[in-house]
Amino acid sequence: MARLNLGSYDEGAGTGGDDGPVRVDDPSYLVGVPDEFQRLWTPHRMVYIQQGDPGHDDCPFCVAPSMSDEDALIVARGKYAYALLNLFPYNSGHLLVCPYRHIAMYDEATPEEVAEIGSITQTAMRVIREVSHNDGFNIGMNQGAVAGAGISAHLHQHIVPRWAQDANFFPIIARTKALPQLLGEVRASLANAWPHP
């Protein structure tokens, strides 16, 4: 395979390789040309580029409700709690249910917060099942950093949809999860299916 010659640009030059330098005014020439790089597309991280990281001192679950649903990946808002997509999902549709109040432990939640977290969880299960046709769920809370909570200062419950064939060798061999949909697409499909009172 001929190597691309990206040297001297010449308006009348050929298409690269043995034919002369690449015409940089015709980028379509490079479409589909293989190179040595593997690519992991992460468009959901544009929010950090466009809006900046809120900082290590700001709780993302406290900041999220002040943002638009699309920017914060919020699927549904209640009076005491809300549901948003996990930025680092185990599977497509991995939701988190958080109280608005900044509390760390489940036993600090008020009866109203507990009831709404439960209600949002049930609705989320129905909506995910309707949209994704999953076979089951993992639901749970990691209480405290020692128990595996990534953001231990703000209570959140995980709702992870599961399919009979959702596990493969990627996480074991390559420490990689294959996710078929972008986060924005998942948020839109769940939000559109969410029942509104």
User: Biggest sheet, in brief?
Assistant: 5 strands, antiparallel
Number of domains: 2
Q: Which structural class fits the helix and strand makeup?
A: alpha+beta
- Number of helical segments? 6
CATH architecture title of the largest domain:
2-Layer Sandwich
Unreliable stretches (pLDDT < 50, length at least 5) are: 1-16
Write the layout of secondary structure elements.
Elements: H1 46-51, H2 60-63, H3 69-72, E1 74-77, E2 81-85, E3 95-99, H4 111-132, E4 136-140, E5 157-162, H5 170-174, H6 183-193
Antiparallel strand pairs: 1-2, 2-3, 3-5, 4-5
Brief overview, please?
The protein is α+β, with helices and mostly antiparallel strands.
Report on this structure.
The protein is of the alpha+beta class and 197 residues long. It has two domains: 1-37, no CATH class; 44-192, HIT-like (HIT family, subunit A). The protein has six helices and five strands. Strands 1-2-3-5-4 form a five-stranded antiparallel β-sheet. The model is unreliable at 1-16 (pLDDT under 50).
Output the keywords:
197 residues; alpha+beta; HIT family, subunit A; five-stranded antiparallel sheet; 6 helices; 5 strands; globular; disordered N terminus
